[in-house]
Amino acid sequence: MDERIDIWDADGNPTGKTALKSEAHREGWYHPTVHVWFYTSDGRVLLQRRAEDKATDPGVWDVSVAGHVGAGESPLEGAVREIREEIGLEVSADQLIPITIVKDSRDHPGGIRDREFRHVYLCRLSQPFGALTPQQSEVAELRLIPLLQFAEETWGLARPGEYVPHGAQYYSRIVKEVKKRL
């Protein structure tokens, strides 16, 4: 979906301008996004496999929930909305634990120049896995994997091409943050 998003400067400050997501990606303008990592009390992490027709990183494993923050939305509001849209869960903002903000710049095939400030959150998955409803246009599959397996597969990027390449440092941070809460 080509939604309207806020445009930020390279230092992470709102410019007061908005644009369609496609225009921001074409021009390489910075904008806010969200990542929400769900984990279970028994030490598993929820992953989504991106839909095969996604413009970026189709068919590979990624964060539990991710998306763009809509124009006029706060990152926290965007995270709550994306959770509802992508996996069908209703969560309140106070259930989300802010972890970090990551400035990221990545060029994709097809002229997509993704420049984002990624707001990263954790959230304990308290609902049963069967209660999740993946959004067909975004999510091909959901799975829970043990944190140790996730760490082994992502820290050294031991399985290139199977995960979105967010980088070993990013994945290591997620593992450490989840581990602190178990």
- What is the CATH class designation? Alpha Beta
CATH topology title: Nucleoside Triphosphate Pyrophosphohydrolase
CATH homologous superfamily heading? Nucleoside Triphosphate Pyrophosphohydrolase
**What is the gyration radius calculated from CA atoms?**
16 Å
Notes on the protein architecture:
With 182 residues, the chain is α+β, with helices and mostly antiparallel strands. The strands form three sheets. Strands 6-3-8-7 form a four-stranded mixed β-sheet. A three-stranded antiparallel β-sheet has the order 5-4-9. The chain has one domain: Nucleoside Triphosphate Pyrophosphohydrolase (Alpha-Beta Complex), CATH 3.90.79.10. The longest helix is centred in the middle third of the chain and has 13 residues, at 75-87. It contains four helices and nine strands. 23% of the residues lie in helices and 37% in strands. It is globular, with a radius of gyration of 16 Å.
List keywords for this structure.
182 residues; alpha+beta; Nucleoside Triphosphate Pyrophosphohydrolase; four-stranded mixed beta sheet; three-stranded antiparallel beta sheet; globular
